[in-house]
Amino acid sequence: MKRIIQTSEAPAAIGPYSQAVEINGTLYISGQVPVDPTTAKVVDGGITEQTLQVMKNIGAILQAAGYAYADVVKSTCLLSTMDDFKAMNEVYASYYPENPPARAAFAVKGLPLGALIEIETVAVK
Question: Exposed e or buried b for every residue in 59-80, given b needs 16+ CB within 10 A?
């Protein structure tokens, strides 16, 4: 049975989608941008600060669904420029110190709200 996940600890959806959907022990987290859920605005700073906020948002959704970073099996990272890859990777790696998930990273032409990064995540129990 499909379960919709929603938490006020992560930004509200800005379109016709759910923060996350769980089905058959798999959690699909929609792409998270660096929006602070308390202000509903993109955080100040560069790729490091934005990646930290994205990872916090993912963590809040994981927790709301009863999952943890250790349950993440796949991430897709969308960057506004591959010039930010190294700095993003340093922050990202700190959340997965052992057995990191599979991952893809792409540069895209534009991201919602002018963000520098968006990360989509899949976790399995």
Answer: bbbbebbebebebbeebebbbb
